Amino acid sequence: MIKEIAPADLRGHGLRLRTWQPDDVGLLLRGVRDPEYQRWNTHHAPILDEAAAAALLRDRADGWQRGVAASYCVTDETTGAALGHVGLNAIVPALRTARVGYWTLPEARGRGIAGHALELVSRWAFDDIGLHRIELGHAVGHEASCRIALRHAYVYEGTLRGAMPEAWGSSTFQDMHLHARLATD
C-alpha cells in the first residue's frame, strides 16, 4: 500500500518543485498554448483562455486532494522563475502505479530541466509515496521526450497503436511509445 499523497517541497539539480497555485493561471496558459507543447500534447478539453487554465489548476488541486494526481510547477531553486511542469496522474494506490508527464517553457528547453524534474518526482514517488511502477508515454516522433525517458531509466516497452488523439477533438489518432520505470530499477 502507498502512503498518503501530500504535496512535498522537492529540491535538487538547481530546481524546486512546488505545487501549482491559483495565481499561476497566466504561466500555465503560456505553457499549454506554446506551439511545441501543442505539437506533442492533447488535453481532454482545449485550454484557450484564463478561465480554462484556472479550471485546469482547480482540477490539479482536486487531484492532490483525492490522491490520484500530484502536479508540480518546476521552478529555478534560486530565482523562483517558472520553468515548466512535472506531474503524476492516473495514480492507482491499490496497484501502486501512476503515469508521469512533463513539459518545459520555451526558454527552459535544452538545459536538462525536464529530465531533472522527472528524476526528482520519480524518486519522491518511489521512496516517499511507495509507488512500484511509473509509466511514461509520448507521441511517436517526439525524440526529445524519448531521450529524456531513456536517460532517466524509463525503459522502452513498446508502441501503443492509435493511443492518443493528434489534437483536441480530432478523430485522427497517433501512436505512442510506452516507457516505464520500476522502484527496483
H-E order? EEHHHEEEHEHEE
Overall radius of gyration: 16 Å
How much of the polypeptide forms β-strand, as a percent range? 25-35%
- Helix-strand category: alpha+beta
**Overall residue-averaged pLDDT value:** 94
Give the N-to-C terminal Cα separation. Answer: 19 Å
Number of helical elements: 5
Helix content: 25-40%
Shape: globular
Spans of at least 5 consecutive residues whose pLDDT stays below 50 are none
Widest β-sheet, arrangement of strands: 1-2-3-4-5-6-8-7
Largest sheet: 8 strands, mixed
Give an account of the 3D structure:
It contains five helices and eight strands. The chain has 185 residues and is α+β, with helices and mostly antiparallel strands. It has an eight-stranded mixed beta sheet with strand order 1-2-3-4-5-6-8-7, with helices on both faces. Strand 5, helix 4 and strand 6 form a beta-alpha-beta unit. The relative contact order is 0.16.
